[in-house]
TrEMBL record:
Keyword Oxidoreductase: yes
Binding site for heme: C487
Cofactor(s) needed: heme
Organism: Patiria miniata (Bat star)
Protein name in UniProt: Cytochrome P450
Length: 543
């Protein structure tokens, strides 16, 4: 043993020994061990290594036990991949090259329809099929929302989309009742949408069949519908401030998608040196500023609000309700901050989602000209060429509805929905879901399940028709989500999609520009699944 020890001693140079001694001194300093632990000068290196090994092993074991205890998986969580200490599954998520919803969907092959993992100590539970979503989102414990941490830096507060508990109940009830009171979703509202659609068609007609990127005009039209509801006004397609607001909104949706986790995990919001966090803060500030200016410009354009009058728009109704509650001394969650956020929520959710769906619709019509022709023939047969399509024509246009449904299924514009938060410990399918867990509904999985939609990647509107060509409502088409937090603009969005799409098909034929590549149906992956920028030509149809 001694000889082998000497052998080792001989083969190690003195600087190595110095380093070993230095490490030992350091360990002593750190552990506060007294001088009796000092190695006698005569001790040979083998013993030194022995010492280090035993102590390193002890230290390592203690460290491992502490880390294991801190980052242990609590019992009975839904199954899922284990991650790294501290970072959890973040490194694996960061390595994903393709769409994140598809990568999360792949986890279901191994772990089933309920998967959990953590990201920087934040537990995330992913729901991967329709039945589990239906069961989960019927529970009020799973119907909270996580805080958008970065917006809390720029303006503390919440609107209807991000509130939880009692504030959400009051904001949602107020929003739904007020929108209904303003006629939204009822046939009386049709006129507003048709008027805006005529402006959109005028804008498209100006291109005289030349190349057009439809993003801005479609967004402006859809946004004007929601702006007329909230602020009682519309904006010209050339209005530069409004153009900026739409640009900032698109950027915000793109960034939230790119750094979705960053938005919801508190620790990231504090890392303001990260470029994505910086950009998110900057975009949030710009959005708030422009929205604020637009909101308060109403007083110049329309005169001060008269609280005795019936409010003409959502903003007026909100201010009146706040004023009434204050006069009555009633406690309320309708505050200036929740008002500002609720306008932002309605404006953002009402613009981006519907206009993205319409852009997918145009792209599918250009990519499948035979389907476009069949839609146009159906509309001409029912509506004729002397007037524009109306809501009352809808029951006679099942194929048109089938096309819109198939676009919503395959376009999958909110593939991971909007995250929910667990507000109280609960159970789902026998698994423990702890308070604070983030709940993500993978709607992409529901819309591409081959047992429900054979050949799910094919665009086939016929899926929504029966043998007699009548429309079949499919329970598992859930673009607006399900449960207690289902989209509150669903009725408005359905009206807009139908009226704008049928009017465009009635007045134009869309095609790819001369010599362009065939349509690729490529997508950008933000929080919404939007088509990558594309160009088309709109040929006016002869009357
Ligand atoms: C095609 C268009 C639309 C789609 C696909 C869509 C989709 C969705 C989805 C998936 C959610 C989340 C549901 C959940 O949390 O489980 C949602 C929530 C919401 N949507 Fe929409 N939406 C659309 C249009 C609109 C419009 C036009 C408005 C404006 C009136 C709107 C306002 C909202 C609001 C305020 C929420 C939050 C509701 C809450 O948290 O209680 N959406 N939407």
């Amino acid at each position: 043993m001694t000889s082998s020890g000497s052998k080792v001693h001989n083969s190690v140079d003195s600087s190595m020994i110095n380093r070993v001694h230095f490490c030992l001194q350091l360990t002593r300093k750190v552990t506060g061990q007294n001088s009796s632990f000092l190695l006698p000068a005569s001790m040979d290196l083998y013993d030194v290594w022995n010492h280090i090994n035993v102590r390193t092993a002890l230290l390592g074991f203690t460290l491992f036990t502490i880390l294991f205890w801190v980052f242990r998986r609590p019992r009975n969580l839904p199954p899922g991949p284990r991650g790294w200490p501290l970072l959890g599954y973040l490194p694996q998520l960061a390595m994903i090259k393709g769409p994140i919803h598809e990568a999360l969907g792949d986890l279901s092959h191994r772990y089933g329809s309920l998967v959990s993992f953590s990201v920087a100590n934040q537990l995330i539970v992913v729901l991967q099929d329709y039945d589990v979503m239906k069961e989960a989102f019927a529970q009020h414990e799973l119907s909270g929302r996580p805080r958008l941490e970065i917006s809390q830096i720029t303006l503390p507060g919440y609107g209807v989309l991000s509130a939880s508990g009692e504030p959400w109940v009051e904001l949602r009830r107020f929003s739904v009742t007020t929108l209904r009171g303003l006629g939204v979703g009822k046939s009386s509202f049709e006129e507003h949408i048709t008027t805006e659609t005529k402006c959109l068609m005028e804008e498209i007609r100006k291109t005289k069949g030349e190349i057009l990127n439809p993003k801005h005009v479609v967004e402006n039209a859809v946004s004007n519908v929601i702006c007329s509801v909230i602020f009682g006004r519309r904006f010209e397609y050339t209005d530069t401030k409004f153009k900026r607001l739409l640009g900032v909104l698109s950027k915000m949706f793109e960034l939230i998608g790119a750094g979705g986790v960053v938005q919801f995990v508190p620790i990231f919001a504090k890392m303001q040196f990260l470029p994505i966090v910086k950009e998110l803060i900057h975009t949030n500030i710009s959005f708030d500023e422009i929205l604020y200016q637009l909101l308060y410009s109403r007083n110049v354009d329309q005169g001060e609000l008269d609280f005795n009058e019936d409010p003409r728009d959502f903003a007026g109704a909100f201010m009146k309700e706040m004023d009434d509650k204050e006069k009555q001394g009633v406690q309320t969650y309708l505050t200036p901050a929740s008002m500002h956020y609720t306008f932002g929520d309605l404006f953002g959710a009402g613009t981006e989602t519907t206009s993205t769906t319409l852009r997918w619709t145009l792209l599918f019509m250009v990519g499948y000209p035979e389907i476009q022709t069949r839609v146009q023939k159906d509309i001409d047969r029912v509506v004729g060429r002397n007037r524009l399509p109306r809501l009352s024509d809808k029951p006679e246009l099942p194929y048109v509805e089938a096309v819109i449904s198939e676009v919503q299924r395959l376009g999958n514009i909110a593939p991971l929905g909007v995250p929910h938060k667990c507000t109280e410990d609960t159970t789902l399918r026998g698994y423990h879901i702890p308070k604070g867990a983030l709940i993500v509904a993978n709607m992409w999985c529901v819309h591409s399940d081959p047992s429900e939609w054979p050949n799910p990647s094919e665009f086939r509107p016929e899926r929504f028709l029966d043998e007699d060509g009548k429309l079949v409502r499919r329970e598992k088409l859930i673009p607006f989500g399900i449960g207690r937090r289902v989209c509150l603009g669903e009725q408005l969005a359905r009206m807009e999609l139908y009226i704008i799409f049928t009017c465009l098909m009635h007045q134009f034929t869309f095609r790819t520009p001369e010599g362009a590549e065939p349509v690729a149906f490529k997508a950008c992956h933000g929080i919404t699944h939007a088509p990558a920028p594309f160009e088309i030509c709109a040929n006016p149809r002869d009357n």
